[in-house]
């Protein structure tokens, strides 16, 4: 079964990723707007999350799935948002799903397309 790690905020994300040793196993990172009372402020994230979670069944069972909350709406919309500026993430939209260390990335409404999400989870590089 895929192992999941939930992180909130840029500092927690950076700290976790800097110490991550995936031992060669696939790592997928899903960026979403913060949740308040169990629901994201981001409507696209609300639509995409169940699709992403459903398609996780296709990922290598030894994969790591990292769920990252990027902040509240005001934090995310700030052009200086650290997630936007970080060369490893270069986020332009939430939700964004990426294979860490590889070019595979889905953003915005692409995360709502089950076939694209499945392809990202099953692509071997």
UniProtKB/TrEMBL annotation:
It comes from the Eukaryota. InterPro entries: Thioredoxin-like_sf, TXNDC17-like, TXNDC17_dom. GO terms for molecular function: protein-disulfide reductase [NAD(P)H] activity. Residues 8-123 form the Thioredoxin domain. PANTHER family: 42-9-9 PROTEIN-RELATED, THIOREDOXIN DOMAIN-CONTAINING PROTEIN 17. This is Thioredoxin domain-containing protein 17. Keywords: Cytoplasm, Disulfide bond, Redox-active center. CDD domains: TRP14_like. GO terms for cellular component: cytoplasm. Transmembrane segments: none annotated. Its main location: cytoplasm. SUPFAM superfamilies: Thioredoxin-like. It comes from Cryptolaemus montrouzieri. It holds the Pfam family TXD17-like_Trx. Belongs to the thioredoxin family.
């Amino acid at each position: 079964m895929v192992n999941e790690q939930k992180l909130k905020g840029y500092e927690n994300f950076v700290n976790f990723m800097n110490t991550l040793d995936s031992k060669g196993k696939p790592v997928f990172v899903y960026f979403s707007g913060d949740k308040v009372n169990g629901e994201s402020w981001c409507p696209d994230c609300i639509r995409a999350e169940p699709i992403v979670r459903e398609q996780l069944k296709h990922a290598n069972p030894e994969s790591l799935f990292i769920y990252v909350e990027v902040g509240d709406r005001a934090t995310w919309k700030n052009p200086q948002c650290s997630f936007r500026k970080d060369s490893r993430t270069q986020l332009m939209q939430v939700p964004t799903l990426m294979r860490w260390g590889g070019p595979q990335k889905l953003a915005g409404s692409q995360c709502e397309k089950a076939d694209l999400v499945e392809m990202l989870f099953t692509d071997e590089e």
